[in-house]
Specification:
123 residues
Length: 123
């Protein structure tokens, strides 16, 4: 099994920045995709971005392109989400997820999830 633990959430003003971390432990895979999703109250879980194991490929949801950056440090078993130019509409619980193998942006395809971390952007 895989365990994922997010950290770094909090309250920030509009235009500010935060960096989320996702620490993984447990089983490893030759190929895996790690991703960030977010969910605001009353809304569906939304794809934020993903990164492959080597870090050679990333993809982002349209709402965050140009503002958010995903990186990973395999030596530290950690993925990061750097969030800049934050907006009130970025307010949500942010989840880290992992799936072995094929590139995918659908939350239903991810096998492993963290517990989430709250990000609140005040206007």
């Amino acid at each position: 099994q895989v365990q994922l633990v997010e950290s770094g959430g909090g309250l920030v003003q509009t235009g500010g920045s935060l960096r989320l971390s996702c620490a993984r432990s447990g089983r490893t895979f030759i190929f895996d995709i790690m991703a960030w999703f977010r969910q605001a109250p009353g809304k569906e879980r939304e794809f934020v971005g993903a990164i492959n194991r080597s870090g050679s490929r990333t993809d982002y949801g349209d709402a965050v392109k140009g503002r958010f950056t995903i990186t990973r440090d395999n030596a530290k078993n950690t993925m990061y989400l750097q969030m800049n130019s934050l907006k009130p509409e970025d307010t949500a619980v942010y989840y880290c997820a992992l799936q072995p193998g094929v590139w995918n942006m659908s939350p239903g395809e991810y096998s492993y999830w963290g517990q989430g971390t709250q990000v609140t952007v005040s206007s």
